[in-house]
Amino acid sequence: MNQDRVEGNWLQFKGKVKEQWGKLTDDDLDVIAGKRDQLLGKIQERHGVTLEEAEKQLKDWHERNPTNFFERY
């Protein structure tokens, strides 16, 4: 897949992520760069939750905002 398209999709996706987890910074999202495990780690770190809670939050968010972003890239 074209790298520009991946980056464009991540820009759209990270806006939605920031709406949900407001304590994540732009720098955090740049580091995450579309990696699910990185997103979970930053949710844990910034919001002070366990890995299990971060996974639950991400799963719940994904059900409300269906996307296959992580499966595609």
Q: Can you tag this structure with a few keywords?
A:
single chain, 73 residues, mainly alpha, Protein Yjbj, Chain: A, 75% helix, 0% strand, globular
Task: Please tell me about this protein's structure.
This protein is mainly alpha-helical and 73 residues long. The protein has a single domain, classed as YjbJ (Protein Yjbj, Chain: A, Orthogonal Bundle), CATH 1.10.1470. It has helices spanning 3-20, 26-32, 36-47, 51-64, 69-72. The longest helix is centred in the N-terminal third of the chain and has 18 residues, at 3-20. The model has no long low-confidence stretch (mean pLDDT 81).
State Rg.
12 Å
**Structural class label:** mainly alpha
Model regions low in confidence, pLDDT < 50 over at least 5 residues: none
Shape: globular
CATH-defined topology: Protein Yjbj, Chain: A
Number of domains: 1
* Number of H/I helices: 5
